[in-house]
Amino acid sequence: MPDRIALIIWVLGITADVCLIATSLVRGSFFKYFFLNFYVILAMSADLTRQYVLRTWGLNSVEYHYVYYYTDCLLTIALFVAVISLASRVFAELKLDKFVRVIAVLLLLGTAGFSYGVVAQSAQRLSTSFTNELSQNLYFVGLVLTYLLWGAVLKLHETRTRLVQMVLALGLYFSAYAGSYALVNLASKYEVVLYLGPLLGCFLPISWSLTMLRHSEDSRLTPARLVAVPR
Amino acid sequence: MMAAFILAFSLLTLLMFFVSYCRSLTAASMHKALSEEVLDVTGIQARASGRDFVRVMQLLQLCPDRTEDRSGLQIVGTYYAFLNLLDQSIAKLSPAVHTWAEEERAGCAHFAAVALGRRIALNREMLAQQAEL
């Protein structure tokens, strides 16, 4: 990726992250949506750390390799926790939030165990291989959970505008990211597809900040209008 | 092969989430009634129809901008363009899709009309403040 375009996307990403944190603080929603903010703070720290290591040691260095995979793993875990925090909010009215959290911990441990099992069979047994495997598997689990969460939002006739739009933004992000990943595999010779992933990283904080700006916590919508094709 | 399948599946889910996201934006304004002023200015009868959207957007450009509305209007504008595309292609083969697209476009027009109402109110406030000075 040319340096200048990558840098522009990087600055855009950091600005979007700062925007979300500022909006949550101004709107008094920082602790209400703590895990979403925590994910964004972590993403911002990871971006800064990666940029520092990249400038100091270079793209092909072992240091950058380690930092990239470890921060990626941490970010995926934080995103997983953010999805679970939204799920426990959706299920809170049914008093199932504790159950959701227990399931989430079991899922996390199960995914970690599965990833370890896969890596343990390989000859190298590197810790970076484990983090890479865990990131990929947890990302897939997060994607499936988001689709299930959207199903639950529709089934439970969720009316909280903020919550609904945050879940939808996550769904859009996961779908677009999976699509861009497939595109990179299909058409890596086109340079433009390499920008899609980093650009999509800016989407989540931007859409979450717009949701916080536009709607208050009390804002409600008609659940029947949410289904793409009404029955 | 697998990558092509993932791409097709993710495009489908992306479309589904995009439609739902846009519907969540328009749904938030559905319960807001249009003021007499907006009905007068736009010529909307009791309920907005899909065709009103373009006119309302033109009127919106004549009013002072509200930064809070800008992104929402852009997204709904994209959704409206998508619905037009749908109406000119698949909807010609299926009347049910045509009816659905028309209802959605009416929702977009209502969303824009509600934003117009807010801008008119802002305009009045600004005029009142100037008069006080």
Structural description of this entry:
The complex is a heterodimer of chains A (231) and B (133). Chain A has seven helices and no strands. With 231 residues, chain A is an all-alpha fold. In chain A, helix 1 packs parallel to helix 7, helix 2 packs antiparallel against helix 3 and helix 3 packs antiparallel against helix 4 (97-121). The mean pLDDT of chain A is 86. By secondary structure, chain B is an all-alpha fold. Chain B has one domain. In chain B, 80% of the residues lie in helices and 0% in strands. In chain B, helix 1 crosses helix 4 and helix 4 (67-88) runs antiparallel to helix 5 (95-132). Chain B is elongated and about 70 Å long. The mean pLDDT of chain B is 87.
- What is the overall pLDDT average of chain B? 87
The Rg value of chain A, from CA coordinates, equals 19 Å
User: Hey, roughly how much beta strand do the residues of chain A contain?
Assistant: under 5%
**Alpha-carbon distance between the termini of chain B?**
69 Å
The level of helicity of chain A is over 70%
Rg from Cα of chain B: 18 Å
Extended strand count of chain B: 0
Choose one word for the global shape of chain B: elongated
Domains of chain B (count): 1
Tell me the β content of chain B.
under 5%
Q: Which fold name corresponds to the CATH topology of chain A?
A: Rhopdopsin 7-helix transmembrane proteins
CATH architecture of chain A: Up-down Bundle
Q: Portion of residues in helices of chain B?
A: over 70%
| pLDDT < 50 runs, ≥5 residues of chain B | none
Summarize this entry quickly.
The complex is a heterodimer of chains A (231) and B (133). With 231 residues, chain A is an all-alpha fold.
Secondary structure blueprint with pairings:
The complex is a heterodimer of chains A (231) and B (133).
Chain A: H1 3-26, H2 34-57, H3 62-90, H4 97-121, H5 127-155, H6 161-186, H7 192-214
Chain B: H1 2-30, H2 36-42, H3 52-62, H4 67-88, H5 95-132
